[in-house]
């Protein structure tokens, strides 16, 4: 077994055995920026992009074949899968609604940063995607070829300016295609988004725990894109296996300081017509890789005077970097699939999920962490609970080459699909405190009951005392939440099936689930909070998971909030 197994064990037990360095204290005054800064580069402002009111969150979470097509040329939306194509307005809108700044957080709440919020240098800005600790370490690069609207090259998305910053001029998409490998999707396009993670941007606060947190951030960002684009019939299919070191060299980054976690090929519209017109200038025969060495020359200007290195973080980057191009064989994940629900447990049927008709953009802009605002006196409805569980289940299908979901109209490259469908890695549990018509207790979610999704009772009785006792922080009263959802993944089984890079996959899936639940809660007029600060082992014991390899990796609290909270409106867009 490699280091990823050791790290996974340390993460699970950190509530009882602290991870090194145990005496670490963040130097807040010397912290990094929340985003890269490239001095002196050319900046291209982006439009906000429109978003159809009919592009609902329900559409964004549906299976690929049932999603609508956004045909702006015809002026309507039809059902049939991912047939749409991106243009600059769509791309800009997706960036704005995921990692772009949309407002300022000034509400009175129970988190530890409350006293800092009024001070502009410490301002907390709202974004559509969630991020551990609000640190947003994912760096977004657009590598574009001749079919795009800008001169081909490499651009960095500056969230603070909602603009693209040119880092390199010239078509290097052939190098990207070569790094992805011949079996990867995306060979017929020359537009790619690359997601990197600048570790110090998170590690200055979370030290050795950082790798665990940032790999979930990647999943949250990807899920935001998949919902946003999917509701419009646009495809976002992330690739997680590729020649990472080659892409790091192209981007001019040290692979020990910045990991390259995902590549997203984009189908691009003909610049002579609107997106969805069915024509494309993407090259039919991809150009050969760039023959001479080429890399981004501008360098990120680091704010911190002192940048620390953490042994566990570097070891995990090294472990997951190895064999990065060895895309798993078809069906490799099947042995690591989530275990079926226990058929001997009492079944409590769920009603039909409440529709989520709100458009994805509006839901993302409503998304926030509740931080102590939950009110037990206003129970969650069973229909709202059913919708959140369905959203979490849909969010676990990450698509691309993850093996956890694949659009039916694309060919099945090795490792992306199996003959009997996608692999569901995650299983969901619910600790019910205050849900109308559902007795308090702990339950496992059974989405495949013949009569519709249902809950299976694990233990009866109020879980509030257990939940609060095993939560480390003071920013939530878990007993006040209507329900606490817990996704589990058989992490060690995934590592055994696809190697140590599978750790990134596990956490990306969990991050995607969290983002789906956050967004669904906003669409359902519920508060939501996600946390990693709990005793994982206690949850294993409480849910009877010993011997199953199931690892509870985060908790998601949903519930109604107290009326008329103290807040200030500070929207940017």
Q: Any overview of this molecule?
A:
- This protein has two domains: 3-107 and 128-291 and 309-321, NADH Oxidase (3-Layer(aba) Sandwich); 334-559, NADH Oxidase, CATH 3.40.109.10.
- The protein is built from 14 helices and 18 strands.
- The strands form four sheets. Strands 11, 12, 13, 14, 15, 16, 17 and 18 form an eight-stranded antiparallel sheet that branches. The protein has a six-stranded antiparallel sheet with strand order 1-8-7-6-9-10. The protein has a two-stranded antiparallel ribbon with strand order 2-3.
- The longest helix is centred in the last third of the chain and has 22 residues, at 502-523.
- The chain is an alpha+beta fold.
Write the layout of secondary structure elements.
Layout: H1 3-13, E1 43-45, H2 57-61, E2 68-71, E3 76-79, H3 88-98, E4 103-104, E5 125-126, E6 138-144, E7 153-158, E8 163-169, H4 173-180, E9 191-198, H5 200-206, H6 210-230, H7 244-251, E10 258-265, H8 311-321, E11 347-349, H9 360-366, H10 382-395, E12 426-432, E13 441-446, E14 454-460, H11 464-469, E15 483-489, H12 491-498, H13 502-523, E16 527-531, H14 536-543, E17 551-552, E18 555-559
Antiparallel strand pairs: 1-8, 2-3, 4-5, 6-7, 6-9, 7-8, 9-10, 11-14, 12-13, 12-15, 13-14, 15-17, 15-18, 16-18
Helix pairs in contact: 3-6, 5-6, 6-13, 9-13, 10-13
């Amino acid at each position: 077994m490699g280091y990823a197994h050791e790290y996974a064990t340390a993460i699970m037990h950190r509530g009882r055995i602290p991870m090194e360095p145990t005496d670490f204290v963040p130097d807040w005054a010397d912290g990094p920026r929340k985003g890269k800064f490239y001095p002196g580069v050319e900046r291209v402002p982006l439009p906000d992009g429109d978003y159809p009111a009919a592009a609902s969150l329900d559409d964004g979470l549906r299976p690929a074949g049932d999603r609508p097509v956004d045909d702006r040329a015809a002026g309507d939306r039809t059902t049939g899968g991912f047939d749409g194509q991106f243009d600059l307005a769509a791309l800009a809108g997706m960036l704005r609604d995921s990692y772009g700044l949309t407002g300022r957080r000034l509400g009175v709440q129970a988190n530890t940063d409350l006293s800092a919020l009024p001070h502009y240098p410490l301002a907390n800005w709202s974004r559509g995607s969630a991020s551990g600790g609000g640190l947003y370490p994912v760096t977004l690069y657009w590598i574009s070829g001749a079919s795009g609207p800008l001169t081909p090259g490499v651009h960095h998305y500056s969230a603070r300016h909602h603009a693209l910053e040119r880092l390199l001029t010239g078509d290097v998409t052939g190098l990207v295609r070569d790094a992805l490998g011949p079996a990867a999707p995306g060979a017929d396009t020359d537009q790619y988004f690359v997601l990197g993670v600048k570790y110090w941007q998170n590690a200055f606060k979370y030290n050795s725990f950082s790798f665990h947190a940032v790999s979930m951030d990647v999943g949250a960002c990807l899920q935001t894109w998949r919902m946003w684009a999917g509701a419009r019939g646009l495809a976002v299919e992330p690739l997680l296996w590729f020649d990472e070191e080659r892409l790091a060299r192209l981007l001019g980054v040290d692979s020990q300081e910045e990991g390259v976690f995902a590549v997203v090929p984009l189908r691009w519209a003909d610049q002579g017509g609107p997106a969805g017109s069915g024509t494309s200038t993407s090259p039919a025969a991809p150009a050969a890789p760039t023959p001479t060495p080429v890399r981004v020359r501008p360098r990120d200007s680091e704010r911190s005077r002192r940048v620390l290195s953490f042994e566990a973080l570097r070891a995990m980057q090294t472990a997951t970097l190895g064999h990065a191009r060895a895309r798993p064989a078809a069906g490799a994940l099947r042995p690591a699939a989530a275990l079926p629900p226990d058929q001997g447990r009492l079944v409590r049927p769920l009603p039909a999920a409440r529709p989520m008709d709100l458009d994805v953009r509006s839901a993302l802009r409503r998304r926030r962490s509740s931080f102590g605002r939950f009110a037990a006196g206003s129970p969650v409805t069973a229909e709202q609970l059913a919708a959140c569980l369905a959203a979490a289940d849909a969010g676990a299908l990450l698509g691309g080459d993850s093996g956890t979901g694949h659009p039916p109209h694309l060919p099945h490259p090795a490792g992306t699909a199996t003959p009997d469908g996608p692999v569901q890695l995650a299983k969901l549990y619910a600790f019910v405190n205050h849900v109308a018509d559902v007795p308090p207790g702990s339950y496992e979610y059974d989405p495949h009951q013949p009569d519709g999704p249902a809950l299976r009772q694990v233990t009866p009785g109020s879980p509030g005392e257990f939940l609060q006792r095993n939560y480390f922080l003071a920013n939530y009263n878990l007993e006040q939440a209507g329900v606490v959802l817990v996704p589990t993944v058989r992490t060690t089984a995934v590592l055994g099936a696809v190697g140590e890079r599978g750790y990134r996959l596990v956490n990306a899936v969990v991050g995607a689930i969290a983002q789906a639940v956050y967004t669904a809660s906003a669409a359902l007029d519920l508060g939501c909070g996600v946390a990693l600060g709990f005793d994982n082992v206690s949850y294993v014991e409480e849910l009877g998971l010993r011997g199953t390899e199931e690892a509870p990796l985060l908790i998601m609290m949903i519930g109604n909030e107290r009326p008329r909270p103290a807040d200030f409106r500070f929207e940017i867009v």
